[in-house]
């Protein structure tokens, strides 16, 4: 990958986290993501599923802040993201997967419309689109047309964000 392509990917990952587009990643971006998913699947925030999603979003934010918010101002700037998060995520994709897992678990349960414990590829694609994940990635997820397991989602998510140099 050339450096322009690498930069492009980093910018896209940052934009995915910066859900409200204000130029830094903060707790609000994670609650914005949770709200977008709840709206997409028409699930009330006060429901058990809604609460689980917000709890997962908060845990995800705390984990990301622990990794990347070096000056502790509760904002992850683009520099902090590139210098801290991207490198740490690449060094430890399993650790990143664990940070994201409660949120993804709750998101999958939303996407799993009939509640049989597995979300279909198209349902996962819908969830990713609601989060503004790049179209190519969202379609890739949906190409797994059959059931999608939590482990598949967690590892796909981790590899999406752990951009190789
Ligand atoms: Ca933001
Ligand atoms: Ca900071």
Automatic annotation (TrEMBL):
Pfam families: EF-hand_7 (PF13499). Gene3D superfamilies: EF-hand. InterPro entries: EF-hand-dom_pair (IPR011992), EF_Hand_1_Ca_BS (IPR018247), EF_hand_dom (IPR002048). SUPFAM superfamilies: EF-hand (SSF47473). Residues 5-40, 99-134 form the EF-hand domain. SMART domains: EFh. GO terms for molecular function: calcium ion binding. It comes from the Bacteria. This is Calcium-binding protein. It comes from Streptomyces longispororuber.
């Amino acid at each position: 990958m050339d450096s322009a392509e690498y930069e492009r990917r980093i910018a896209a990952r940052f934009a995915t986290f910066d859900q409200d587009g204000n130029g830094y990643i903060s707790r609000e971006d994670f609650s914005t993501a949770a709200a977008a998913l709840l709206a997409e699947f028409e699930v009330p925030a006060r429901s058990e599923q809604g609460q689980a999603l917000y709890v997962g979003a908060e845990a995800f934010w705390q984990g990301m802040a622990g990794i990347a918010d070096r000056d502790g101002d509760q904002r992850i700037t683009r520099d902090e993201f590139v210098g801290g998060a991207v490198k740490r995520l690449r060094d430890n994709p399993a650790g990143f997967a664990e940070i994201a897992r409660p949120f993804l678990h709750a998101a999958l349960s939303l996407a799993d419309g009939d509640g049989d414990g597995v979300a279909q590829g198209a349902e996962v694609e819908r969830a990713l689109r609601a989060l503004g994940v790049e179209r190519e990635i969202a379609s890739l997820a949906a190409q797994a047309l059959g059931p999608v397991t939590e482990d598949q989602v967690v590892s796909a998510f981790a590899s999406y964000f752990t951009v190789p140099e």
